[in-house]
Amino acid sequence: MDNAIYATLTRQSGLAKEMALVANNIANMSTTGFRREGTLFAEHVADLGAGEPSLSMANAEGRLVNESQGVLQQTGGAFDLAVEGEGYFQVQTPEGLRLTRAGAFTPSAEGNLVMSDGAVLLDAGGAPVAVPTDAGPVTIAGDGTLSAGGQPIGQIGLFRPASPIDLIEAGGTRFRTEGGVEPVEGGQIHQGFLEASNVNPVSEITRMIAVQRAYEAGQGLLEAEDGRIRSVVQTVTR
Predict the structure, then answer these.
(1) Residue 224: helix, strand or coil by DSSP?
(2) What gap in Å lies between CA 165 and CA 112, rounded to an integer?
């Protein structure tokens, strides 16, 4: 196959992945705690030998999570929590430990704070956050200290991936890491608030249009190259 076709096909494949992420971002503009994602492109340059120009191909190597702050929306819920600044809540799921910025929790029958699907919120030491039902009003300070009836009973933990790029989407608003996590000291927790998605509708739709136009341009190049090759073959075989 001609090198121009190889190069264009790899580009088209990457643009298709980018469009899928853009569509997912737009679909989650109203999802609490959602983080915008983008495609991480890499350039691969091949040496074609003496006297030949090098061949450059672009490939979509991975996904990059945008960690910019989302708007904090007041709900008044005693167990609605939002993080301002750096850090993620850590929850225990059947699939393992996960990080999330979605902070809508409720007390379970066992007294632990859980998400809607039962994922358990963990404290700074990695243990479930327990809330006594008969100890009075529950308050949560900015540093995550949880108090009941005016007495501190625990501290909600905030964590971040050990490596800035080691944040892997694991479904919806949750992420996993392969290199472990470390505690965050500077993040602020706000009780009675939830963090909105950090997707900007205008910029995301603009991005979608740009990706679509780039894909259409690549498709036109492939069709023109295919026509050129057909013309050469027909001329040679006459």
Answers:
(1) helix
(2) 31
Q: 51 is written with which tokens?
A: 């006297």
pTM: 0.80
Label residue 154 exposed, middle or buried (CB < 10 Å: 0-12, 13-18, 19+). Answer: buried
What 3-state class would DSSP assign to 220?
Answer: helix
Q: What is the DSSP letter of 167?
A: -
Q: Which amino acid is at 193?
A: F
Query: What is the distance, to the nearest Å, from the Cα of residue 111 to the centroid of all Cα atoms in its chain?
Result: 30
**Best CA proximity match to 119, nearest among 97, 140, 139:** 97
**Can you tell me the distance from the alpha carbon of 181 to that of 178, in angstroms, rounded to the nearest whole number?**
9
Q: For residue 17, which of 215, 175, 167 has the smallest C-alpha distance?
A: 215
Which comes out higher in pLDDT, residue 106 or 232? 106
Residue 185, H or E segment: none
Residue 72 or residue 169, greater confidence:
72
Distance, CA of 161 to CA of 98 (rounded, Å): 11
Q: Among 161, 165, 88, which Cα is nearest to 122's?
A: 88
pLDDT at site 56: 63
Amino acid identity for residue 71 in this structure = V
Give me the sign of the Cα torsion angle 122, 123, 127, 128. negative
Q: How far apart are CA 233 and CA 10, in angstroms?
A: 25
